[in-house]
Amino acid sequence: MMADIPLMFITLRWLDVLDIFLVAVLIYQLYKLVKGTVAIRIFLGILAIYLLWKLVSALSMELLSEILGQFIGVGVLALIIVFQQEIRRFLLIVGSQSPFAGAGLINKIVNWSKANSEDQDLDTNSIVRACFNMSRSKTGALIVIATDTELKYHASTGDQLDAKLSAPLLESIFFKNSPLHDGGAIIHKNKVVAARCILPISDNPNIPSNLGLRHRAAVGLTESSTAIAIVISEENGKISLAANGKLQNGLTPDELGEELKIQIKRDQEAS
Questions:
Q1: Domains of the chain, earliest start first
Q2: Which of 241, 124, 144 has the alpha carbon at shortest distance from 193?
Q3: What is the pTM of this model?
Q4: What mean pLDDT is predicted for residues 7-18?
């Protein structure tokens, strides 16, 4: 066992070094979650109030210290309310990287000798072909690919389809006169589970102002889930892809196909 390291009047154990390292990693991950969002300003505001409370306490300003102390006393509850989206994303990252994440482990244990026909590789060719055709006709679309989770909550907000994935089906869903063209279509395991689904809107201020609600919904969903979202702009027909809260604009059909394969493979390796 490693001996304790005396530093003047402080005894530094190897567990203390590990403790400091883990806290630093945790703070860095939290910073990455709130970086570029409104939450970072809220976090700085709370930090300023905490430092002010410490200052007035040291100066024995009892009335102000009591008021700020009451505010800090309910700080944990306030943080949970204010940062609920960021906390959800953090837990999602932790859960998706866990060896017990998703149903993959259970399926491997229970059905290890069976080849499930529903778990075939995603038909990315149909998705790319539909996106190419809608891009040429400038048909607005929002396609969500559910990876390790089925997004049942978001699918329940739309119309249930449970139809086999195909390019003509996607094009008919987003045809401008179709009653299903508003909202997002959710794909899971080569099936279009639902259409006209309501998706969360991102409040990330770094999203260009010229992008509409479809793009913000694509980013918003991928901020709080491991899903992949594809957007077709009805203004210029450009294809965009959102994953992990980040948006790639102006993709060609070939680039879209490659990005889909990369993102899906990365998600499969993580699960």
A1: 5-96 (no CATH), 124-270 (3.40.1700.10)
A2: 144
A3: 0.63
A4: 72
